[in-house]
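User: Could you check the structure of this?
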Amino acid sequence: MKHILSLQNIKRDNRMAVGNKAALLGEFARNTQMRIPRGFVVPAYVFDATLVANDIYIAVFQRIYKTDFNDRRDIALAARFAMRKVQSMHIPKFILLEIIRAAQNLNGDMFAVRSSAVVEDKIKLSWAGQFETILGASVSTLERDIKKVWASMFSYNALSYRAIHKRIYDSYGMAVIVQELIPAQISGVGFSVHPNSDFEDVHTVEAVSGIGKLLVSGKESPDVYFIEKKWHTLIDASIKIQKKESVFVARKLISRKMSRSRGARMLLSREDAKTISRNMSFLEKQFGVPVTIEWSKYKNQINLLQVRPISQKRKVGLYTHKIVWHKQVQAFLVTEIWAASERYTKKLLGINAVADPIFVHKLNSGVDVYYHKDDIRNKPIVLLDFYRDNPELFIKALQHYMKLVDEMKSVAFLERSSFEIFDVLERAWPFMGVLYVLLDLRARGVVLPKWLEKEVVRARIVGEKISHNIFSHILSERETAVGGPAGEFYYTDFLTKKEIITGVFVAANTLRRRSKKIFVYYQDEIYIGTRAQKLMKEKIFAGLKSFHYDGELYGKRIYSGKISGSVYVYNVYTDMHNIPNGYILVARSLSPECVSFLPKGIAGILIEEGGEFSHGAILARERKIPCIVGIKDITKILKTGDEISVSAKGEVLELKK
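Assistant: Sure, the predicted C-alpha cells are below.
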C-alpha cells in the first residue's frame, strides 16, 4: 500500500482514499490546458494507521461517539481531548521519510498543506473553512503541520458543524495535500454559473491582491469581473479599492497595507479573464455540472488551486434584460424620449444596441433602466474595446452628437414647437447613454484611454447642461399651468410626451395620483399591477448590483428572500451563542468560527465585507438563509435591537428601519 500518492496519479474514483478536494484536483493535474501546482497526497488511511500505531485510535473515537452533541461544553471537551491526542502522536518513521522525500522533489522550499476530508467539497455541504490550511510549511515542519490538519477534523468548529447539520456519524477520514506554494501576486475565485442568479451565459470571477486569505475570510471585498462564457470575453468589471493584501515576508504570511493607487488598480487583464473563463468552461464540461474554482496568478501564469461543484444552484429562467442604471429622472416624459431615441442608437453608434429597454418606475421618479443582455451597453468592457480599437467611429459619432448639441444651444431652438425640440433630443440621447456607460467604468476603477476619457467628460458636461436647460424651459411653463411651484417640476414629472406636445390641460390632482403608482414602461406601453409584475418576472434578470440604502449603499445579494425582524450586531464570535431565533445577524465579516457557532434560527445575514466565496456567503447558500454581503458601513448604520425590513425587488433592495 502506498503511503504517498502523486497528484498526477489520482483520479476521481480515489476520493474515499484521498478526499474530494484531492480527487477533483488530481483528475486534472495531468491536463496540459491548466496549470496546477505540483504536489502529493497523504491518504486518509495513513491518518488511521498513525492513530493505530500510536495506540490512540480507540480512545479518540470512543470519546467522540459518546459526546453529547447538544451540549456545547461537552463538544469543547471532546475536541480538546481528541486534538491533543492527535497533535502529540508521531507519524511512523518510514512513512515520514516518504513524505520528506516527496516534498524534497517538489520545486522550492515552501509548501501549502491543505485538508482533503472525505466529507469535504460536496454539493450539499462544502465544509468551507472548517479544516486547517497551512501556508509556508517547510520540510522541517511537515510532520507538525500534517498533524495540525489531521487534528482539525476534531476541532470544536468541525464538531459543531457536524452537530448543526446532523452529520455526527459521517466519515472522519482526512487526507492531506502537500503542494508547492505559489507566492500569488493575485488570487481569487470563479463561478461557471453564478450561485445566486439565473444568468447562465456569464462567468463571474472575484480577485484580490496577494494570497487569497483575506478573500475567503471575508475581510476584503474583491474586484468582480463578468466574462461572456461563449467567447470568454471580459464584458464588465467592478473594481474595489482594496486596503490590504496577504503576502509572504521572510517566510511569514502577513497582512500589509496598500497605497490607494495600488489598491484601486484593475487586477486582471483581459487575457487573464479569458484564461480563467476557458478553464471553468473546460471543468464544467468534464464534470457535467457547474463548478467554482480557486485560482492564483504568479509571474503571468494562472494556477488552479481548487475545484468544487457549486452548491444550491436554482432553476434557470430565460431572462432577457439586465439593469444598467438606477436613475432619478422625470417619470413619463424622459422615459418616452429615451425609448424613442433607441431607434437612432444603432445608426449613431454603429454598434449592436438591441433597442429594447425596460423602464421600471418607482415612487418619486426613481427609475431602473434595463437593457437586453445582448446589448453592448450591458457589456461595457466590450464597448470600451470597440471604441479603443475603432477611434474613427467614436469621433464620427461624437461629431454628429456635438452638431446636435450646437443646434440645441441656439437661442432660437427653444422657440420651436415641442415636437421639433423632442425630435432633436431623441436623436442626441443615444450618445448620452454611451457616455454614462464609459464614465461608470471609470468610476469603478477601469482605466480609459486618455484621449477617450477627455472627449467623454467634455461631451457629457455639455450635453447634460443643455438637456437640463431644455427640460427646465418646457416644464417650467407646464408647472405654472397646473398650479405647481415654478422651478420644482414635481407635478410635471408625470406629464406624458403627448400631453406636452398637444398642450392639453392635465389637473394637478391627476398628476399627483400618477406619482403614487409604480409602473413599467416597455415597447410604448405602460404596465401596472399584476401585468407589470408578470412582465418583470418574465424579462428581468435579478443580478448583483443589489443593495440600496438611502441612495448610497450597495452590496451583493447572496441568497434571495425577504428579511424582517430585530437586528443583532455581533463583535466577537462567542456572541453567536446569544443570538435569539428570528434575529437578523449584522456583522463586519464572518470567520470559520462564526460559521460553526451560527444558530439555525436566524432570519438573515447582512455582512459589511466579503464576496461571493467568503465563509458567510457559502454558509448562507448551504442553509438557504437570506444574505447580502459587501454593504459598506452597515455595522455603523444599524445597532442591536433595531427593527428592519429588507425586501428584494428586481435588483434593488430597500432597507426600512
